[in-house]
Q: What sequence folds into this?
DNA sequence: AAATCGGGGTG
DNA sequence: CACCCAGATTT
């Protein structure tokens, strides 16, 4: 592609403009103050599919509780996942825990991208990010931000299946533009540009440090790139029960087995299926307490919550159902949405 | 290649 | 509501 070729030819000028902007305008983020390998690793795991703003409070709490690889490796998985509660994609927490245990068992820290790629939770993006930032390794990151920037710079109108596929196609261009003298700052600058200037909607082209290199900006249609296939969202309904024991106010919850692939160790308000009830029998109009909505990847869930008297429970109670006293609720593992629903309904009662 | 991860922000 | 976010792993 012609635009990409011209861009690569002016790589040194592009790098200088980008790096100059980054050093003057970068946000002050916790892992950029007194940087360390541990802070870089923890931040990169939390930032997988999660925006900076969302993970900031979790990062502070995490560093406070587990300040380094040794304390993380020594912690129990239960403690680690509990600290992650609310951030979602809990496999990241389990992988970060496994990673810490793998690293402390090694004679020395791996310094190359290929060595990091062998470790748990480390893929193409994270290996490049960690080794370029912490060790100055010459590896270009390609995340959602970089895909958007490169597609616009080159005005690449390819209709991609998804971001992963686009990233694969654009990796050679990312590598060609990498600043080998400052790979860590170059990578962070690309992502910072995508997060604060070259945004998906209403990009701030007038203040962009690399607009002179951008074919999409010249054409006046930056938002046309990248061109990605539309996602198909599937709607699902889950009827849940709000069931409290009169004697001590304990709440009935369903706990998924800790070894399960999905929802491992998570507590939820029991669904009709958990209870062995017909959803339409549980979902009586006169017992509706609230209807909640949430999304996860390609699903949109609608979850009506119905009051249920303990006397209405089938006997014996199915495995996985547990009574949790109000004082114990904070200690059990629960997703962010469930935590908020339970708090709201307890307060209302 | 496509599905999964039971999150959350934003226009 | 639709789409994206400093993606990785499993099927």
A:
């Amino acid at each position: 592609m012609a635009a990409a070729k011209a861009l690569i030819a002016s790589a040194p000028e592009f790098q200088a403009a980008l790096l100059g902007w980054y050093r003057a305008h970068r946000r002050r983020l916790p892992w950029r103050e007194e940087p360390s390998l541990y802070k870089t690793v923890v931040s990169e795991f939390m930032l997988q599919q999660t925006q900076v703003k969302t993970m900031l409070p979790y990062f502070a709490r995490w560093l406070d509780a587990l300040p380094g690889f040794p304390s993380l490796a020594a912690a129990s998985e239960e403690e680690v996942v509990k600290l992650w509660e609310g951030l979602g994609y809990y496999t990241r927490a389990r992988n970060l825990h496994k990673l810490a245990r793998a690293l402390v068992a090694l004679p020395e820290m791996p310094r190359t991208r290929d060595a990091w790629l062998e470790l748990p939770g480390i893929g193409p993006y994270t290996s490049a990010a960690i080794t370029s930032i912490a060790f100055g390794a010459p590896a270009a990151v390609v995340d959602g931000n970089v895909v958007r920037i490169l597609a616009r710079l080159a005005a690449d109108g390819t209709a991609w299946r998804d971001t992963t596929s686009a990233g694969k196609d654009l990796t050679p261009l990312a590598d060609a533009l990498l600043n080998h003298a400052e790979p860590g700052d170059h990578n962070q600058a690309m992502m910072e540009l995508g997060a604060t200037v070259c945004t998906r909607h209403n990009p701030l082209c007038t203040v962009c440090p690399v607009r002179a290199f951008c074919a999409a900006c010249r054409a006046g249609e930056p938002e046309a790139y990248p061109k990605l296939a539309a996602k198909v969202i599937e709607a699902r309904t889950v009827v849940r029960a709000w069931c409290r024991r009169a004697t001590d106010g304990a709440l009935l919850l369903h706990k998924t087995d800790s070894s399960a692939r999905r929802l491992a160790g998570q507590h939820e308000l029991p669904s009709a299926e958990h209870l062995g009830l017909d959803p339409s029998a549980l979902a009586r109009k006169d017992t509706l307490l609230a209807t909640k909505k949430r999304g996860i990847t390609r699903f949109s869930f609608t979850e009506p919550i119905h009051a249920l008297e303990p006397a209405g429970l089938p006997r014996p109670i199915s495995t996985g159902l547990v009574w949790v006293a109000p004082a114990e609720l904070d200690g059990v593992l629960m997703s962010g949405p469930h935590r908020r629903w339970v708090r709201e309904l307890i307060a209302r009662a």
User: Anything to note?
Assistant: Residues 9 and 205 of chain A are 22 Å apart (CA to CA). Strands of chain A lie at 159-160, 227-228, 234-237, 240-242, 251-255, 267-268, 288-296, 299-307, 321-324.
